[in-house]
Amino acid sequence: MGSCMRLLIVEDEVKTATYLRKGLTENGFVVDVAHTGDDGLHLALTGEYDLIILDVGLPERSGWSVVTELRKSGREMPVLFLTARDAVEDRIKGLELGADDYLVKPFTFSELLVRVRTILRRGPLRQPEVLQIADLTIDLLRHKASRGGARLDLTPKEFALLSLLARRKGEVLSRSLIADQVWDMNFDSDTNVVDVAVRRLRTKVDDPFEQKLIHTVRGVGYVLEER
Ligand code: CA
């Protein structure tokens, strides 16, 4: 993996952009760099990229605006957001706009490399805006979920958690991955914050229904799938 894969880095901190380009190039990627939102959007619209690494805070045009314009133009390449912010609202906003993953600054190069490879391994097709698993429907754009046609009343974090599980349907997600993706926090493995959140989510998503969709994998984490 790596050879022939083309990446675009849009990052206004020149030092960071240079460092990322160097590391990714050494790992076999072909890398272009833009330092403003406008330049990044222009390159993304005119070039063929397998992945865009997109800073949120950019001059001229924010990362949010870049991805909104890309999706409007029908460009479905995956986007990895780099964000200095850790508010759950930012994550939800990014998810609604079609972000594929997040990396919160500061991060190490090896963390970035793992995310990049994971996204590229998932393949070129972005997830659809509406996810359907059995009778569960998740509308990522409108931020709504329903089961059996009945609207589920979810908090923003519950929606983020359910969306994460659904986007990775059939994949067992560890508690630490869930904590990182939904709360941007590193919980100790013995804390039960994720377990409590999953339990609350289950009371809405699974308890009223005969078919359970969220499953516990003991010692590992959680998976959402039809069984
Ligand atoms: Ca920035």
Count of strand segments: 12
Small molecules bound in the structure, each named once: calcium ion
- Helix residue percentage: 25-40%
- Shape, principal axes of CA atoms: globular
Which value, in Å, is the CA radius of gyration? Answer: 18 Å
Order of helices and strands: EHEHEHEHEHEEEEHEHHEE
Task: Describe this protein's structure.
By secondary structure, this protein is of the alpha/beta class. It contains eight helices and twelve strands. It has helices at 14-26, 37-46, 63-72, 88-97, 109-121, 156-167, 175-183, 193-205, and strands at residues 6-10, 30-34, 51-55, 79-83, 101-104, 130-133, 136-139, 144-147, 150-152, 173-174, 214-217, 221-224. The strands form three sheets. The chain has a five-stranded parallel β-sheet, with helices on both faces. The chain has a four-stranded antiparallel β-sheet with strand order 6-7-8-9, with helices on one face. Strands 10-12-11 form a three-stranded antiparallel β-sheet. Strand 11 (214-217) and strand 12 (221-224) form a beta hairpin. It is globular, with a radius of gyration of 18 Å. It binds calcium ion. Calcium ion (CA) binds at residues 12-13, 55, 57-58.
What's the short version?
The chain is of the alpha/beta class.
Present the secondary structure layout.
Blueprint: E1 6-10, H1 14-26, E2 30-34, H2 37-46, E3 51-55, H3 63-72, E4 79-83, H4 88-97, E5 101-104, H5 109-121, E6 130-133, E7 136-139, E8 144-147, E9 150-152, H6 156-167, E10 173-174, H7 175-183, H8 193-205, E11 214-217, E12 221-224
Parallel strand pairs: 1-2, 1-3, 3-4, 4-5
Antiparallel strand pairs: 6-7, 7-8, 8-9, 10-12, 11-12
Helix pairs in contact: 2-3, 6-7
The structure holds calcium ion (CA).
Residues 12-13, 55, 57-58 line the site of calcium ion (CA).
